[in-house]
Amino acid sequence: xxxxxxxxxxxxxxxxxxxxxxxxxxxxxxxxxxxxxxxxxxxxxxxxxxxxxxxxxxxxxxxxxxxxxxxxxxxxxxxxxxxxxxxxxxxxxxxxxxxxxxxxxxxxxxxxxxxxxxxxxxxxxxxxxxxxxxxxxxxxxxxxxxxxxxxxxxxxxxxxxxxxxxxxxxxxxxxxxxxxxxxxx
Length: 185
Description:
The protein is of the alpha/beta class and about 180 residues long. It has 4 helices and 7 strands.
């Protein structure tokens, strides 16, 4: 795993040794950032189920104003801290440890431009997290969510979310979501 572009370009990140941590591959990360590269500068980024922090660190390296990382594993948090120190991006990061999706409630009152959500595959956590994101109203009105799930995993968006793009990369699927616009008559 490495940082692809920006201030920390080329930095090799510490990889998880725990087989329960499934990092987003460099291939998927590179394709993700090819899609969102024009949306990163100066934004507030949220990385849920952050693991090693590779996705959020890439956002910081490319010019995001800040990134909040959420994870429930102390091993992941320790690895994430090491990667933030190695890339010299720790000053732009906030790390919150807690059970997800419950910990999303701690973000009430904050707004994020891009939320990256990478729950463990086939555990049914995507819907619960999306509900918490909507309930806490933490997505900026012009923002979007990127959900990474297994390419064979079923997903039906909540009624107040709409899929704006979907891409499959091998075993992973990226689904881009926005809150549906309410049209007043």
